[in-house]
Design a protein that fits this description.
The protein is of the alpha+beta class and 225 residues long. 36% of the residues lie in helices and 15% in strands. The two termini are 24 Å apart.
């Protein structure tokens, strides 16, 4: 109940929030960067985590029934397992293609996309080190079981698995960070495979608000300033 009351206070604060800043490239330490801030940490092209940020409770996603050796924070496991089981009950099979990434791992990931697509395209589709939600240990990239990487599909969001996640992920505490047609608000291109775990209450609040996750987090944080 305390969390629900807090969310209602956040909703009231929305009206007082400072306008969402335009997407710009900077390196400002995000205000909420403690491990306990995981549902509310704002990361975008401006705000970043420190290089030293590394969750101390990382476990294998195999505990939720996903193969591949991917790591997530332990607090994600129960709802991740529930999401997988619900998808399977509807006849769908999901796999992970990415989960926790350290600062150094993200440096290499960003360099890969720069080499593959050029700097301008990479900046739109891949976060610079420190700016990636994957460093939180609560962001995951999904794909259809046995299929190619989702970014190699013309629109993975239109696959059965992609549509199911878009309709159901919030019920298990996951929010699509970069929905279609919202690049000016999210700072990144449409990524229907990238979901961030924020917990069921926050995911419900974000979904009911109709805002992108970045907008909701900004208004939540701005309302507290």
């Amino acid at each position: 109940m305390a969390k629900l009351a807090q969310l209602l206070l956040f909703a009231c604060a929305f009206a007082l929030a400072a306008p969402l800043p335009p997407c710009a490239y900077g390196d400002v330490r995000t205000p909420l960067s403690d491990l306990d801030d995981w549902p509310y940490t704002l990361l975008d092209t401006t705000y970043r985590l420190p290089e030293s940020y590394a969750p101390n409770d990382l476990v294998s996603a195999e505990l939720a029934g996903f193969a591949g050796g991917f790591l997530v924070r332990e607090l994600v496991i129960d709802d991740l397992r529930a999401l997988r089981e619900a998808a399977e009950a509807d006849g769908l099979a999901l796999e992970l293609t990415s989960a926790y990434r350290s600062y150094g791992y993200q440096e290499r990931t960003f360099a890969y996309w720069v080499a593959r697509e050029g700097l301008e395209a990479a900046l739109r589709s891949s976060a610079r080190a420190g700016h990636s939600e994957h460093q939180l240990g609560t962001a995951l990239d999904f794909r259809s079981a046995g299929g190619p990487d989702p970014w190699d599909v013309s629109d993975w969001g239109e696959t059965p698995e992609g549509r199911w996640l878009a309709e159901n992920a919030h019920r298990f505490g996951f929010v699509m960070s970069y929905p279609a047609g919202q690049e000016e608000l999210t700072c990144y291109i449409y990524e229907p495979w990238h979901y961030r775990y924020v917990g069921r209450e926050v995911a419900r609040a974000v979904t009911e608000s109709g805002l992108t996750l970045r907008e909701w987090l900004w208004r939540r944080g701005s309302g507290e300033r």
